[in-house]
Amino acid sequence: MSALPLPFPLLSSISISSPQSHFSLKSSSSFLLPFQRVKLFRSTPEATLFFTAKTMAELVKDNESGVAAAGTTEGGKVEVEHSSTFLDARSEEEVLSGFKKEIEAGRLPPNVAAGMEEFFRNYKNAVFQSGDPAAAEIVLSNMAVALDRVLLDVEDPFVFQPYHKALREPFDYYMFGQNYIRPLIDFRNSYVGNLSLFYEIEEKLKQGHNVVLISNHQTEADPAVIALLLEKTNPHISENLIYVAGDRVITDPLCKPFSMGRNLICVYSKKHMYDVPELADMKRKANIRSLKEMAMLLRTGSKLVWIAPSGGRDRPDPVTGEWYPAPFDSSSVDNMRRLIESSGAPGHIYPLALLCHNIMPPPSQVEKEIGERRLIGFHGTGLSVGPEIAAAGEKSDEVKDVFTQSLYKSVTKQYTVLKSAIHGKQGLEASTEGVALSQPWN
């Protein structure tokens, strides 16, 4: 499931902070989009569908009418008839005029429209940084669908349950998020660390074991980045990972469509627990319900859970400007340890490092209000997993802290290697004895 409306967003831990959105209006040139390349409806993995934005609109309507007649299925959602303004757009000018049209029709609040416009412009600038000759087509095709999904949710708001299963039908929100983030990743300058351990994790899942990934958290796009870097080698991980997600990625209108494509356990962030004091008790009770949902899931086995026990996204040092994983909260780590130990299925905890902040850097400070400014960039990314770390001995506070620090040290070591490879331009030569880098998409 930061810097832009995503979920990707996303996403954090039992103590998490997440998305927001801020808005601005600027001028821009126009271009035409002849075709759209997406995989948004269920098909074989090999099938890639080509659509014009207009064709996409017709397919969405056809799918919705069929589902409305038959009812919902697991992972699906009956959708209402809604404006096709953005799907019908043939140029940037038509997209921009669409905002005014939807505001005047009373279907789009002006502040949301402003955020959507900035969303469009920033995405355009980032994709053009890639130098892809099809950048204009990519921007308009991806943004037509993204803006359409935001508008649909404004018209018919989706409500997330404590455990949300990714919506794949009639509209494939998972592939929507993948296709949106893919053009922002410089795969030539991206790396995966310890690929063999991801295979090890998949084997444990096949055996009915539960696996928890204790990770740092950088952007709203984290889930998509993880899934994209592993989609060629470990598609089971990419599609079945469950993210512990903060409430902001499921309430922000610009984030929600991206979050809808991820498996989520929805919680309220510790950092925002008392933003509105009178809601604190409600938030605590909601978190208890979410933890119960997670406990029930883990009892069935073969579950893979991602959690960022820092309580929010990493941020640069205010003095040096250097990025490092934010410290982990030992109570959040211990909550996960106790959940997997009491599940009845064998459980494992692995440290995961993620480097992708340049794609969507978060605000320099944690903000209370939903309304942060979204910045977007084209950049290399990195993902690495370290060997399993087991908690041993009596579970005193001291032991809990030592266990948490062991996980954190592994994440920071892996992060340093990724940083040398990507920002230090060392590439595969940045590999160490503990972190073997590869580019499995090559």
UniProtKB/TrEMBL annotation:
Classification via SMART domains: PlsC
Main location: plastid
InterPro entries, sorted: G3P_O-acylTrfase_chlp, G3P_O-acylTrfase_N, GPAT_N_sf, Plipid/glycerol_acylTrfase
The reaction(s) this protein catalyses: sn-glycerol 3-phosphate + an acyl-CoA = a 1-acyl-sn-glycero-3-phosphate + CoA
Gene3D superfamilies per record: Glycerol-3-phosphate (1)-acyltransferase (3.40.1130.10), Glycerol-3-phosphate acyltransferase, alpha helical bundle, N-terminal (1.10.1200.50)
EC number: 2.3.1.15
One family name in Pfam for this protein: Acyltransferase
Keyword Signal among record annotations: no
Phospholipid/glycerol acyltransferase domain sequence ranges: 211-357
Coiled coil: none
Pathway in which the depicted protein is active: Phospholipid metabolism; CDP-diacylglycerol biosynthesis; CDP-diacylglycerol from sn-glycerol 3-phosphate: step 1/3; Lipid metabolism
Location within or outside the cell: Plastid, Chloroplast stroma
Keywords from the UniProt entry: Acyltransferase, Chloroplast, Lipid biosynthesis, Lipid metabolism, Phospholipid biosynthesis, Phospholipid metabolism, Plastid, Transferase, Transit peptide
Function of the protein: Esterifies acyl-group from acyl-ACP to the sn-1 position of glycerol-3-phosphate. The enzyme from chilling-resistant plants discriminates against non-fluid palmitic acid and selects oleic acid whereas the enzyme from sensitive plants accepts both fatty acids.
Family membership: Belongs to the GPAT/DAPAT family.
Name of protein: Glycerol-3-phosphate acyltransferase, chloroplastic
Species assigned in the record: Hibiscus sabdariffa (roselle)
